[in-house]
Amino acid sequence: PRILVLASGSGTNLQALIEASRDRDFPGQICAVGCNRPNAFALERAAQAHLETFVVDHTKYESREEFDGALMAEIRRHNPDLVVLAGFMRILTTDFVRALRGQLLNIHPSLLPKYTGLNTHQRALDAGDHLHGVSVHFVTEELDGGPVIAQAEVAVAPDDTAESLAEKVQEKEHILYPIVVRWFCEGRIKLGSDYVLFDGELL
Ligand code: GRF
User: Per its UniProt entry, what is the enzyme's top EC class, as one word (predicted)?
Assistant: First the structure.
């Protein structure tokens, strides 16, 4: 299956997927990497891996709808089976998400449904949580609200800061995302109406 990755920043999740896809028995290949920022380091990583890249610069579009339309046109050009949001910092319109329903994954640095949105590590610290982590989910119209496929937990230490917590979470991200992408490429996970099916079982 053809995997298209969208990123906005450093692309460490992209890097984890690049490395996983080098494994001969990895059931998918990254067909392109797209960014909404021309200077995203993720583009460097993609170039180093000889992957095709494209930029749809959101500052060049008047509206969210126009940006999403241009992004979707680029995505269609590569004809992916799966679109992976990997640190993609754009809120996508309902039309865009519906067009890719069941083929769009996201990784979010919290144990959803806790802490949708930004600054998740600081919010977990402020709440005095002892457990934090990362979630991989199908993207639906609800921001960070789609059915969760898998989570990985991180213990919060008393001396943790938002930075140290983010580091621990990112380590788990880089393990979890390749596993979930592999499962998707193997046809093991599917999106139901508002649930995930894993090997045909309702998760
Ligand atoms: C990560 O923490 C990820 O959870 C969030 O974006 C951050 C940056 O990801 N979605 P990356 O290093 O650009 O892959």
Answer: transferase
| Residue 135 exposure: Cα atoms within 13 Å on the Cβ side | 20
Cα–Cα dist 91/106, whole Å: 12
Tens of pLDDT, residue by residue over 11-68, are 999 999 999 999 999 999 999 999 999 999 999 999 999 999 999 999 999 999 999 9
Beta carbon of 10 within 6 Å of any ligand 1 atom: yes
**Beta strand pairing call for 2-7 and 82-85:** parallel
**Does residue 170's CB lie within 6 angstroms of at least one atom of ligand 1?**
yes
The two three-digit tokens of residue 7, written as one number? 């990123």
Q: Is 91 annotated as a binding residue?
A: yes
Average pLDDT along the chain: 97
